[in-house]
Design a protein that fits this description.
By secondary structure, this protein is mainly α.
């Protein structure tokens, strides 16, 4: 299989990411609905006894040695690790890369559908009475982010802060983990493949950016994207074959040596130099 052109891949990834970012801005839900959805998720978790974000958030708030690194991880790792895995796979082989890239893009677009249908207020933006602390705002003096999400200072208004469900931080980390586990050649790579998505899940809850069920939904979105990937690849191959296949103008017939048209052979009369077509 021919290796994809790197510039074409960068363009494709850029277009999908721009659509994802722009889509998040265009589908901002109203604050009241987002808060209602967030509280509904919190109530379900409390009923089931799985609201793990509460104790984690208290721990990260009370222990800056945990909270500050967690904020840095939340604000930066998905920008670094995910592209690094893509480049690694691009260099390893075209088939692996195409499948992984398609899986990532499909899942990201599915996540955008989730943001559209279910705008959700993250725990950090709920009323303080619910017991959450926005660690990104609390420790913002230590990083490049401001009090609004994980965007650089002054750019918080360019983000959709109600895009908590599903958590694509967790989804993208799970994508990285699966690929590291599957294609990593060393025990350290496989261990990182397990640790990275688990660490990301703890970070997004401890910083009060996501509920546990947001993380579960992020994993579900990646699972759906994985199931759809073979169909998308087959469709892409079919389209590529239609575009690249040259037209057949001979109707399947081929000429042999000495033929003027398919199926006709010329025999030269050595006596007078004339030729005769033989069928």
């Amino acid at each position: 299989m021919r290796r994809p052109r790197w510039w074409a891949e960068l363009s494709l990834i850029g277009v999908v990411y721009a659509a994802y970012t722009g889509g998040r801005l265009l589908v901002r839900g109203d604050e009241a609905s987002a808060v209602d959805h967030g509280l509904a998720i919190l109530r379900v978790e409390q009923t089931l006894g799985i609201d793990a974000e509460h104790p984690l958030n208290r721990l990260f708030t009370d222990v800056p040695a945990l909270g500050i690194p967690a904020d840095f991880a939340y604000a930066s790792l998905h920008y670094l690790v995910t592209p690094a895995i893509l480049v690694w796979l691009f260099l390893r082989g075209p088939a692996r890369y195409r499948a992984a890239r398609t899986w990532l893009m499909l899942s990201t677009l599915l996540g955008l559908v989730g943001f559209t249908l279910l705008p959700t207020c993250p725990p950090r933006l709920l009323d303080p009475a619910y017991g959450f602390t926005d660690t990104m705002a609390r420790f913002s003096a230590y990083g490049w982010w401001g009090g609004e999400a994980s965007a650089p200072r002054g750019l918080g208004g360019l983000t959709n802060q109600y895009a908590a469900m599903p958590s694509l931080h967790v989804g993208w980390a799970l994508w990285c983990g699966v690929l590291l586990w599957r294609y990593g050649r060393t025990p350290a790579a496989k261990a990182l493949g397990v640790a990275y998505p688990l660490l990301t899940t703890v970070v997004v809850m401890g910083t009060a950016n996501h509920y546990l069920l947001d993380a579960v939904a992020g994993a579900a979105v990646m699972g759906a994207g994985l199931l759809l990937t073979p169909y998308a690849l087959r469709l892409a191959n079919r389209v590529r074959g239609t575009v690249e296949a040259p037209p057949v103008v001979s109707g399947g017939c081929e000429t042999s040596t000495g033929e003027r048209i398919p199926g006709q052979r010329s025999v030269t009369d050595t006596a007078d130099g004339t030729s005769t077509a033989v069928r």
